[in-house]
Amino acid sequence: MPHESDDHQQPQPTVGSHMLASTEDMRDADDILFAHPPRTVTRWRCGCGEDYPCPEVRFAQLVKRATVRSER
User: Fold this and answer.
1) What pairs with residue 51 in β-bridges?
2) Among 11, 29, 56, 59, fewest CB within 10 Å belongs to which?
3) At 69, is the secondary structure helix, strand, or coil?
């Protein structure tokens, strides 16, 4: 059994082979990837593991902020 190299490169299209996307599509894809880089996002987490505020915290905050109006 022949040994395969660890370098797994995409085969280059040869003359007469069909590409999945056109050259223009490839340039557009490069432009999109350049314009939309990944970014680091910091999010608060609740003690229960969900995003803060979790539904239980929202309900508790609603209860704490609620005021009872006396009827006149």
Assistant:
1) 45
2) 11
3) coil
Residues in the chain: 72
Helices (H), 1-72: 23-35, 55-65
> What pTM value is reported for the model?
0.42
How far is 67 from 42, CA to CA, in rounded Å? 34
Q: Report the candidate in 9, 13, 11 with the shortest Cα–Cα distance to residue 21.
A: 13
DSSP for 41-57 reads ----B-TTSSBSSPHHH
User: Is residue 50 predicted with pLDDT exceeding 90?
Assistant: yes
> Using the 8-state DSSP alphabet, how is residue 15 labeled?
T
Residue 55, both tokens: 């539904």
Cα–Cα distance, 62 to 46 (Å, whole number): 17
Contacts of 52 (CB under 8 A, 6+ apart): 43, 44, 45, 46
